[in-house]
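Appendix B. Worked example

We walk through a single record from start to finish. Start with the input: the chain for Small secreted protein, Ephemerocybe angulata, length 173.
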Amino acid sequence: MQIPTIFFFLFAFLTAAFAAPIDMERRAAAAVFKKQTYNQLSISGGTAGNAEAQALAKLSGLNMNDLANVPKADLDFLNSVNQIANQAETEAFNPAIDAASGAAKTALQNGKIQNKVLKLTATVLKLKAQAAQGNGDAAKLAAEQKKLDNNIKLDKAAAGQAATKLSFDASTS
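Next comes the structure step. The output line below is what the pipeline stores for this chain.
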């Protein structure tokens, strides 16, 4: 008995389709973040003391219980948040702090710390997701977490003090 050619090709196709492992959840995971400007993301301003919660709120779209399935686009977004917040720190906050004095300088410094909390929160989340995906660097994660913890501590120590928000022209990629 001869098997018709169509059945042979159908059998070969189905065998190939099921033989290759497909991670449907990762493939189906859509990016949760969209392009944003620095000014949209910024948590600087108002009063110091709550930067940790503000940063987590800005980046709350991530499923913290499933970091292994964070799409590459969201990892890129988190990296981009780090980059534009770092640019704001060096190109906006640092020169303004250098030119200021007294209460204005303190408020700018508090805004800079808030900005650093946002930057480092994005970095730590990215590194945790990469680790969950098997691409982690434990030493780098530990170093960045230490920096984040230090800046959160500084922000909480300044709780209730004025914090200055600076506008900065940059966008995530």
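Two observations about the output. Strands lie at 46-47, 162-163. The radius of gyration is 23 Å.
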